[in-house]
Amino acid sequence: MTKRDFHRFLAPAVLATAGLIASCASAPSQPRVIPFPQIVSEAPRPGGLITSYSEALSAVLSVMQNDLGFPPLAGSLRLYYDRVSMEVGLISEGYAADYAREIASKLDGLSRPGLVLANDAVLRWQHWPQRMVFLAHETTHVAEYALAGGRRSSSDQWLREGLAEWVAWRVADTLNLGSSAARKRAVVLGLRQARDKHELLTFSELASQTAWVRAGNRKTTQAMYFQTFLAADFLIERRGLPAVLDYFRLFAFSNDPGANFRAAFHEDRASFEAAFEKNLTQLLD
Known about the structure:
- The structure is a single chain.
- The chain has 285 residues and is α+β, with helices and mostly antiparallel strands.
- It is 56% helix and 6% strand.
- It contains 13 helices and 4 strands.
- Helix 6 packs across helix 7.
């Protein structure tokens, strides 16, 4: 993969390319379903050239489980033919029609308990390294649900997205698909540009799922992922990845985000946000 290719897939779940997707009468009405492969603990990672979603998922889940300490995951990937069929799929999953349309128009994919739902009209034009970063991001969300006992819960959206971004690039690094350190440098550069354009958002705007979807637009979405990546990276540097996984486990028993944050990280959210904002200012100056 060239340096140019590397920078082409910095954000795995960003805005769908405008004008790429068009519904047609011949489009498949049902999604293609690929089950998650079962990963044997401590087994060697799958090697060789990736040529299928099953192989890609096997490599991603192997790194998550054996290298990063995530629990084994069961689930499936649903590939919708285009944006319109994905919108219909979201409605069948229980989303309100207007919200499903809004999500499908902005995101290449999203996750539910045990499910990754993706717009294949975008993915099928990407190289496998790009798709694997996307899959690592979304399967991390599946893991967040699993850790919380299958609940969406009120966990902070910035941490849900930030962890997914952080894991995606650790997976890429481990599989020699990209550099996590280079990703961080690119993120800092991107946020400097976003700051100069007044496109940075506050933590309150990044906290809830609804606010996340509706705050994002073509100017701010990439900056939102950049901010959450750095926030998760900063939190993991301070407290470690096991503490982040414990944070999500706590939501299986309590839906109090403030109390769970204090229990997992031994500080309240306000003090962390203040520390992160100070660290972010130093990074961007």
